[in-house]
Amino acid sequence: MQELLPGETSEPARGQAQDALSRLRLSGPSPVPFPVALALNVAGGLLLSLAFPPAELWPLAFVALIPLLWSLRGAGPARGAVLGLVFGVAFFGATLYWIFLFGALAWFALTALSATSIGLVGAVGPSLLRDGRSIRSAIAFASLWTAIDWIRGLFPLGGFTWGSIGISQVDDRPLLPLATVAGVWGITFVVVAVNVLLFQAVAGNPIAWVRRAGLAVVAIALVLVPIAMPFSEPNGGSLDVAVVQVDVRPPPNTSAVQEDLLVARKNITLHRSLAGSSPRPDLVLWGEGSLDPAASSDPATMASVQEAIAQVGAPTAVGAVMNDPDGRQRTSELVFGKDGSRVDRYDKVHLVPFGEYVPWRSRIDWISATRQIPVDRAPGTSLHTVGAPGLPPFGTPICYENSFPALPRAFVRDGATFLVVPVNNASYGFTAASDQHLQMSRMRAVETGRWVVDAAVSGVSAFIDTHGRVLARTGLFQPGILRAAIRTSTATTGYVRWGDWLPILALIVVGISFLAPRRRPHPHPPSGPLPASPRTLVVLPTFNERDTIERVIAGVLERPEHPDLIVVDDSSPDGTAELVRPIAAQDDRVRLLERPSRSGLASAYLDGFTMALREGYDLAVEMDSDLSHDPSELSRLLDAARQHDLTVGSRYVAGGSVTNWSRARVALSRGANAYARFMLGLPIHDATSGYRVYRRALLQELLRTPLSSSGYVFQIELVMRSDRGGFDVGEVPITFREREHGESKISRSIVAEALWMVTRWGLSARLGRGPAA
Fold first, then answer.
1. Up-side HSE of residue 578: CA atoms within 13 Å toward CB?
2. 310 HSE (CA, 13 A, CB side)
């Protein structure tokens, strides 16, 4: 092998490895048969639902995603989206079964909308799962799930958080402290990551048992390490709090007005039972909806409320629906002083769509179910704490608001020393809705480092400490007084301080993981050594190259490697073929292929490559016919071809250069190559160079399947397919000279095609449609 000139050593793109692949268009693991995949996802979704009430088998959450992960192997975006949607429908459909109380349409709409988030996970997730990269896959996929779950809590219509995986882990004592720093999102992230690690250990490509054990250890560590993190401990004084809970179920044939007044009287009567108690409670709480519109707008009823509060002599917070002077109706928390006078009020900011108002009412009024909500309530103007003389400030996220982590956090940042959650889940009867809601309050207690008191008009009422433990609770529709001492606090948790930093970071991780170039497959088996004097065919495509073709042919024929050449002419109007014809007639190393019309650069090279394979050539060379490629540099490319399956003459490696180009054009060319390198994960710096040498084995693989491009971008496609096929691609420096004769064939449309194709290939690979990554 000839020695290369100093500073011109060829640059191999990647080292060889022992693994071998037999095909260029590599594929990942074979997809699970579609009917089986559907069944797996139905089972997985139902399994995950068992982690939530009523079953509350929370450990199942750590394995429930494995069926989804298994079915996503080898899935493209469309298939993945369908499988994720099926998983989501099974999960949310079972978890939200209690929505059926409002009709099949309501249940189906909410289930389908919620399931689309997992459909999106299914569409994007396969592109983040990398064989052999278990930790990276776990981080990326868990980030994707966490980010999408967070977005689901924001959009549409203010979001919907029910079914967040992290909520299921409120009884997972080792993992739960993580919520003090990362919120429920941190718990979700860990649970999903553990699923991925366990899946990689049991269902991935065959790996050594040591690695399997290692993945299991990492999974266990993720769950156990947070146990070392402290829960927030309250630093304030004690308060004696009493919750009034009634049975709101009315007798048959009770009108809406009568029902409102009846519920109010029940609360008043039960509240009066606290009179004379010793010690007197520091605060009394009534549930949401204790004073519905007919009661809150009735002067006699409101007078009775204030008299009862004054009789007991304790500040009282009452859930009410108010018909305000501006003509709007609002869901409110009214705070009365111990003398019965009203001293504060909070109006619910985050209303329940299709529960407290109907979005787009004028457009969907034809749906009869919307008429069950006759009045659209108005939201409050701001989140703020409330208080009463003798009490520290506290927050009152009303019912649905407590399902959004950011809202209780906002109350605490506003100075809340404890949280009161007025609740009205009476419409859901004896279903698991109330227990699912209680889980959210438990998570909010841990996140904020505040005691939480759920004050439910008909259950479940509960006292929850900062560790998320339920210290006292009621059943459903069981009237009575629930009373306990709580602790106030001004301590600040990491979650209160930093908020939803984890899902935002997760979005960044997903973006980086998705945009990062795909990892190259294992190398193709080495093609073997070349003969001492390999047969070489130089392919010279021409269209109006009369001024340069003779010099190019002469330069090629002078090479000591004695290459043959073929001129592929596209009926050049300038008579290029007429010049080549006599040369080919006199020298059997020169051939001329005259094509009847202009068929393009890519097809010209493919015709030449086909001839090279048919006639047993060891090497095939691409080369321009306008002297932009110096024939004297061919020897260095042929020498490097002994080391690489594809050798590219590069302008942009050490020793390479461009002459007669403006700085702007050089910058544009470098930028285009950098973009292709990034999008496609290419191992070379000059993928657009047309001066290159292919070994026979590579050409045979490249020509097995048609190219998807026909313009100049085919140069990039051939490099991409060579690299993704595991072949060795290297570069040697060349000097590119701008043509002195004729006109460049590059046009804006060619540049646009190249940009589009590179973008499409890159996105296809990232979404799992291209060769395995």
1. 7
2. 10
- Taking only the tens place, the pLDDT of each residue in 65-102 is 999 999 999 899 999 999 999 999 999 999 999 999 99
**Which alpha helices (H) appear in 357-417, and where do they start and end?**
361-364, 406-413
Annotation says 288 is catalytic:
yes
Domain boundary among 439, 469, 492: 492
| Catalytic member of 266, 348, 717, 731 | 348
If residue 560 lies in a helix (H) or strand (E), which one and from where to where?
A: none
At position 218, the amino acid (one-letter code) is: V
In this predicted model, what pLDDT tens digit does every residue of 519-533 receive, in sequence order?
A: 555 566 767 899 999
- Catalytic (active site) residue 333: no
Q: Are residues 214 and 275 in the same domain?
A: no
Mean pLDDT of the region 164-170: 99
Q: Is position 445 within any domain?
A: yes
CATH of the domain at 327: 3.60.110.10
Q: Are 637 and 732 in contact (CB under 8 A)?
A: yes
> 649: domain CATH number?
3.90.550.10
Pick 464 or 525 by higher pLDDT. 464
**Residue 467 forms part of a structural domain:** yes
Residue 468: CB partners within 8 Å, gap ≥ 6? 170, 176, 179, 442, 443, 445, 446
The reported pLDDT for the residue numbered 150 is 98
Asked if 65 contacts 48 with a C-beta cutoff of 8 angstroms, the reply is yes
Split at pLDDT 50, 70, 90, the class of 549 is very high
* Full-model pTM: 0.81
Q: What is the pLDDT of residue 11?
A: 36
Position 19 in a domain = no
Q: Tokens standing for 225?
A: 């390490």
Same domain (yes/no): 311, 455: yes
Catalytic residue among 399, 447, 545, 633: 399
Residues 280-338 pLDDT 10s: 999 999 999 999 999 999 999 999 999 999 999 999 999 999 999 999 999 999 999 99
Tokens of 570: 């596209």
Residues 467-517: tens digit of each pLDDT: 999 999 999 999 999 999 999 999 999 999 999 999 999 999 999 888 876
Q: Are residues 74 and 223 in the same domain?
A: yes
Query: Domain containing 456: what range?
Result: 238-492
Alpha helix ranges (H) inside 313-387: 361-364
- Residue written as tokens 């009214």? 334
Domain total for the chain?
3
Phi first, then psi, for residue 533 (nearest 5°) are -125, 80
Q: Which residues pair with 646 in a beta bridge?
A: 694, 729
- Pairing outcome for strands 646-650 and 729-733: parallel
* Whether residue 259 is found in the same domain as residue 225: no
Considering the domain architecture, whether residues 677 and 548 belong to the same structural domain is answered as yes
In this structure, the answer to whether residues 311 and 185 fall within a common structural domain is no
Given 11, 266, 288, 338, the catalytic residue: 288
In a domain, 523, yes or no: no
Domain termination residue (choose one: 492, 525, 552): 492
Query: Is 745 one of the annotated active-site residues of the chain?
Result: no
What's residue 765's pLDDT?
81
The pLDDT score that the predictor gives to residue 7 is 33
CA atoms within 13 A on the CB side of 292: 16
Q: Do 223 and 293 belong to one domain? A: no
461 and 563 part of one domain: no
